[in-house]
Amino acid sequence: MGKGRERALAQVHWAVINDDVEALKKLLEREEGAWLINGADYDKRTPLHVAVSNNSLMSAQLLLSAGAASDPLDRWCNSPLANAQKLGFSSMARLLKRYGAEPVAENRWGDGALITKPPQSWSWRISDPSEIDFEGGKLIGSGAFGEIRQANWWGTTVAVKTIRASLSQDRAVVKDFIGEVELLVQLRHPNIVQFLAAVTTKKPLMLVTEYLPGGDLHALIQKGPLPTDLAVAFALDIARGIAYLHGGPNVVIHRDIKPRNLIIDENNVLKVGDFGLSKLVKVTNVHDVYKLTGETGSYRYMAPEVFLKEDYNTKVDVFSFAMVLYEMFEGAAPFNSEESYEAAYMVARFNKRPEFGSRTYYPEGMRELITRCWSEFAVKRPDFDYIIEELEKIQERSPRQDRHCFRHLLQRIRCNTRMRSATWLRN
Q1: What's the rounded Cα separation, in Å, for the pair 312 and 380?
Q2: CA distance to 56, 94, 105, 113, 414, per residue, from 85 (Å)
Q3: Domain span at residue 316?
Q4: Per-residue pLDDT averaged across 147-166, rounded?
Q5: CA-to-CA distance for 333 and 258, rounded, in angstroms?
Q6: Which pLDDT score, from 0 to 100, does residue 297 have?
Q7: Is residue 417 part of a domain?
Q8: Residue 72, preceding bond cis, omega within 30 degrees?
Q9: 256 is catalytic
Q10: What is the domain-level CATH number for residue 359?
Q11: CA 410, CA 404: separation in Å to the nearest integer?
Q12: 3-17 and 21-28 helices cross at what angle (nearest 10)?
């Protein structure tokens, strides 16, 4: 797929995600519109797949009436109807059936998703690492365990996380890496960084995901508080991604929600990434407290029960989310004058919380929502379904701008990030 088509398909996905029928009509009227109707991305997802995943009913109706195939299969062999049934979107399922979508057999695999046929178990595994071309790819980030670089994989720009060769013999490191891959294989959502493939049998170990050119939220906040409507839009992106992770029966607790792990794509949509510390738990009740303890995650955003090594559940992600919300509006990290460990200690031992700035504007209901989310008591923190409802109400009460209005701000951040990377590489 050429760059032009790739860009056009991304615009179609954006219109579909927002159920913007007028924008979708204009895109489909273009010269390449006939291709775009059934155009597939690197995961073989068509616009209809995306419409179903977001329950964008009007967009799905338009696509189907324009001739979209009703039963395309993505890389996991899931049809739009299979996804609609899995997500419980009954109106969407009825619409698809009206246009000839075949009922999905009650076969189950892996995480219980309804599928038309079992997928190839190891279709994501890269046996020949030379498929990944790092020439000209920039360094995105590095740490004690490895680095993340931009690369090219079969003509597609991707991000590649590489484990240091010196650590490839470390059983604990390899176990954590394989655990992250096994988790990512099961995750698919518009607000989750998309896993593509991995090198697991040769050194160095590598994990391939979609490349998001917007950088991370941390870099954006370094320029100061976000515009209110952009902060609310980003908050909804994060909340929707985590709500998906917390959906049973396989609950995923991220355990490290922070600005550096929230990445911006080419459409200025925020996605949750870095699942190296995430924990997948099979449960029958999503409100169960799991026997998970220990100081897992980043201290500054850490829930008190984690710092105190107490049992915890999905509400630790709610607490971290509240800290990120605060940072987006204030333009500074919680307790930014304190060391991160001291900040976590104050939160856990003395029930301290960062103070809302007297001159900081918060839309009606936002401070109250943040206060509930960082409650000392996990049981009093709301779940993400409720958080999404509240954020949508706040968004409806606020004057809305399309997030593309902030394109120049985001481009400036990206430019500065590239300049810092170039300086780092020269030094």
Answers
A1: 13
A2: 15, 10, 11, 9, 39
A3: 217-408
A4: 90
A5: 10
A6: 57
A7: no
A8: no
A9: yes
A10: 1.10.510.10
A11: 9
A12: 150
The burial class, CB within 10 Å (0-12 / 13-18 / 19+), for 393 is middle
The reply to whether 187 and 265 lie within a common domain is no
Nearest-5° angle of CA 414, CA 257, CA 296? Answer: 130
Asked if the structure places residue 420 within a domain, the reply is no
Most confident residue range from 62-71, 171-180, 181-190, 391-400: 62-71
Q: Which residues contact 132 (CB under 8 A, 6 or more apart)?
A: 126, 151, 152, 153, 158, 160, 199, 206, 208
Length of the chain: 427
Task: Name the active-site residue from 256, 265, 274, 317.
Answer: 256
Each residue's pLDDT tens digit, 62-82: 999 999 999 998 877 788 998
Would the annotation count 202 as a binding residue? no
Q: Judge contact between 291 and 332, C-beta under 8 A.
A: no
CA atoms of 338 and 336, how far apart (whole Å): 5
In this predicted structure, the answer to whether residue 180 has a pLDDT above a threshold of 90 is: no
How far lies 134's CA from each of 3, 108, 130, 178, in Å? 19, 38, 9, 22
Q: How many domains does the chain have?
A: 3
